[in-house]
Amino acid sequence: MTRLAGKVALVTGGGRGIGRALALKLAREGAKIVLNDLDEAPVAETVKIVQEMGGEITSVVGSVTEPNFGERFVAAALETFGDVHIIVNNAGYTWDSVIQKTSDEQFQAMLDIHLIAPFRILRAATAHIREAVKREDERQEYAYRKVVNISSLAGLYGNAGQAGYSVGKAGIVGLTRTLCKEWGRYRVNVNCVAFGLIETRLTQPLTSGEAHISIEGRELGVGIQPKLLQAISTMAPLGRAGTPKEAADAIYLFCSPESDYISGQVLVCGGGLLM
């Protein structure tokens, strides 16, 4: 079945991990994909996989925090596929410190990636969505569009050492619920998925020194000490971390037609872990 045939889906952070798993899931369901990631190589790999599946995909490489990225991203969707039906704000990373060691730059970077970038993308899509809905009303075609924002248990409950990350992920919940009220008249379902522990490069076990990711010239440490990782995993009632595919499946629930009367909600995908 191709439940999303004809739909155009925009996915940020789609070169790896959860974003890649989601792009593949949406493509299998018939959606045309507009893929973003910061780095060219993982984007090219995801694009190749989707094309080998027979899917349609285009890419926009670069940082979602660039001031004009939202306009560029939406324009790529319209120029290539002519519409926007699904927007998933998935891009993100962690830059952790206790508050007394958190710089202004560090705190702002977490707000930029997790809150301001999604805001700009959604703002950029507004004009098209409004005009598209007017045309659909004239034809008496009443399709629903989908926005899925990504939060975290840290955004719902806070987490020591993650002041900036937690605030950014809490803010995206507020934006989700606000747009639910503003965009309901446009038949847009706006929801949020909050993740617990998911197996990605950000949560990899530190078995041989500190791992790093490169973000706009910054080398940032990532990963979790194995004993702490095991402890967090066993805290979840299901007794383990989630996989990128399972995380993508949670997002897909809000992209599917089954969510047409669900909006303004936060779904926790954490194996039962509620902090």
Descriptive notes:
The chain is an alpha/beta fold and 275 residues long. It has a single domain, classed as Rossmann fold. It has helices at 17-28, 40-52, 69-81, 104-138, 153-157, 163-183, 226-235, 244-255, and strands at 8-11, 32-37, 57-61, 86-89, 145-152, 188-195, 211-215, 218-222, 266-269. A seven-stranded parallel sheet has the order 3-2-1-4-5-6-9, sandwiched between helices. It has a two-stranded antiparallel ribbon with strand order 7-8. β4, α4 and β5 form a beta-alpha-beta unit. α1 (17-28) crosses α8 (244-255) and α4 packs parallel to α6. The longest helix is centred in the middle third of the chain and has 35 residues, at 104-138. The mean pLDDT is 93.
C-alpha end-to-end distance: 37 Å
Helix content: 40-55%
Tell me the quaternary state: single chain
What is the typical, i.e. mean, pLDDT?
93
Strand numbers in spatial order across the main sheet: 3-2-1-4-5-6-9
How many distinct helices?
8
CATH class: Alpha Beta
How do the strands and helices of this protein lay out in sequence?
Elements: E1 8-11, H1 17-28, E2 32-37, H2 40-52, E3 57-61, H3 69-81, E4 86-89, H4 104-138, E5 145-152, H5 153-157, H6 163-183, E6 188-195, E7 211-215, E8 218-222, H7 226-235, H8 244-255, E9 266-269
Parallel strand pairs: 1-2, 1-4, 2-3, 4-5, 5-6, 6-9
Antiparallel strand pairs: 7-8
Helix pairs in contact: 1-8, 3-4, 4-6
